[in-house]
């Protein structure tokens, strides 16, 4: 029987035994004094914190200068013309802001500077969106393979947001990730091919022995993610998949991963438990997912809104009911455990058969 698995989704408060040990700022209005654009040694312009920023804080909320909705042709010459027309409709200060953005392709494609800026600074307007946007400030944010912030297109307000996912100190650069990880050789190749630079972030500049350890973990993380995403194994070998979820969570803790990979893991673990009737753990993982998404996307994230309802009634989710192998009730969540004991109960489901 094929597993009824919903599409996987891209990758803190202390409640209900949660491992998420940091207090979040739930304000949805960015404080303009939080950050400033300034020169970053070796990177050009970037965004730097002017005060300490707590995880869950919204740093920026911005509408695009232009979007790629105006581009109708794959021809570079036609694209350049269409971008020029779109820019002509903007106020002078907005046009100037666009032209001031970095062009990674200025040397390789000098004939199409406007398109080069798009290719260098585009953010998709939503998950799997075919349309992207260029932003005056958000497009200044540089990459890190260990980011302290994430970008999210808020469909309710039609704006791009930047949320802090790891505490940021005064003077520290605010960074997002341009890709979803892997070992350093893979990261460097992807960044060079797609963005034209060699990454020199905190993670990539680790001493060789430490970088080798990190690479081994991140390679293993990719293998585990592939296993967890296999619907046949989720259906027929759930204990193996649950063990993989637990191992992947440990890697994320060691590698300080707080971006969409973490929430996706919680979503996968939720589906796995829900498929096999373990409502107590399914509820917990749904709550963890909502907590992680609230930090990264805010409480009005569509993912948070939808999964908050599911956490109260896991049976309503399409993943429910493949088997009753792990049957439990919502009320079977243990009470009075220490955080360590609760985590052991949660992640070692495969040992309690």
TrEMBL record:
CDD domains per record: SET_SMYD
InterPro entries: SET_dom, SET_dom_sf, SET_domain_protein
Pfam families for this protein: SET
Coiled coil regions in record: none
PROSITE patterns: SET (PS50280)
Residue ranges occupied by any SET domain in the UniProt entry: 32-179
Name by which UniProt lists this protein: BgtA-20268
Species of origin: Blumeria graminis f. sp. tritici 96224
